[in-house]
Write a structure and sequence with these properties.
- The protein is of the alpha/beta class and about 180 residues long.
- It has two domains: about 30 residues, no CATH class; about 140 residues, Metallo-beta-lactamase, Chain A.
- Helices cover about 30% and strands about 25% of the residues.
- It is built from six helices and seven strands; from the N terminus they run ααββββαβααβαβ.
- A seven-stranded mixed sheet has the order 1-2-3-4-5-6-7.
- β1 and β2 form a beta hairpin.
- The longest helix has 11 residues.
- The chain is globular, with a radius of gyration of 19 Å.
- The two termini are about 35 Å apart.
- The mean pLDDT is about 95.
C-alpha cells in the first residue's frame, strides 16, 4: 500500500523535493512492515507489543501497548469489547480507547436505518457502558476517549456519565489537535 501511495504521488514528491519548495529529500520515504500479535519493537528506551482485538468481521485487528521510562500506554484501536484490552492494560498508566454513545440517526450517514447503524456499532465498536466495564477491570490510571461517536441526541457528557457507572478514574475526552501540558 505504501509503495502504491508513493507511486501515486511521484510527481508531487519530485516537484516538492527538487523544485523551489526545497522539501526534505528523504522525509517522504516510508519503511512499512506488517505486524502480528506479540512483541513488535524493542530498543533501550521503549517496548511495543501488539495484541488482537475484536473488530466485527475483520480477520485481524490490533491494539498496542507501549512501555517506556516506567510508564505504559495501551491503545485499543477500533474494537468491540475485548478482554485482550483488559489484559494488555492491567493497571497501565493510560488507556486510549475508542467509544460510542447514544442510539439513533447518524449525522454522517442519515439515510441508513438506525437498526443497521446500531448493529454495526455493537459488532465493530465499544459503547460507553461497555467501556466503563472494561476500564473498571483494566484499572488504567487515566482513560482517554478517542475516535468517539455520538448518536441520536447523545452529548459528550452523556458518554462520560455512562462510563462513570462502572469506572471512577480520570477521564479525558480527546479532540483533534489537543495538547496536554505536563
Amino acid at each position: 500500500m505504501a509503495a502504491h501511495i508513493l507511486e501515486a504521488y511521484k510527481e508531487d514528491i519530485t516537484v516538492r523535493t527538487t523544485g523551489l519548495e526545497g522539501a526534505n529529500p528523504t522525509g517522504y520515504k516510508v519503511e512499512a512492515q506488517d505486524v502480528q500479535a506479540g512483541s513488535i519493537y524493542q530498543d533501550g528506551n521503549v517496548r511495543v507489543k501488539a495484541f488482537l482485538v475484536k473488530h466485527g468481521s475483520w480477520k485481524e485487528a490490533l491494539g498496542y501497548r507501549f512501555d517506556a521510562g516506567g510508564k505504559s500506554i495501551v491503545i485499543s484501536g477500533d474494537t468491540a469489547p475485548a478482554e485482550s484490552v483488559v489484559e494488555a492494560c492491567s493497571g497501565c498508566d493510560v488507556l486510549i480507547h475508542e467509544v460510542y454513545s447514544g442510539s439513533g440517526p447518524s449525522a454522517t450517514k442519515p439515510s441508513r436505518p438506525v437498526e443497521e447503524i446500531m448493529k454495526y456499532m455493537r459488532e465493530f465498536h465499544t459503547s460507553a457502558l461497555e467501556l466503563g466495564e472494561i476500564a473498571a477491570k483494566a484499572k488504567p490510571k487515566t482513560l482517554i476517549l478517542t475516535h468517539w461517536m455520538l448518536y441520536g441526541n447523545a452529548k459528550p457528557e452523556d458518554m462520560v456519565r455512562e462510563i462513570r457507572q462502572k469506572y471512577s478514574g480520570p477521564i479525558i475526552i480527546a479532540r483533534d489537535l489537543d495538547v496536554i501540558a505536563p
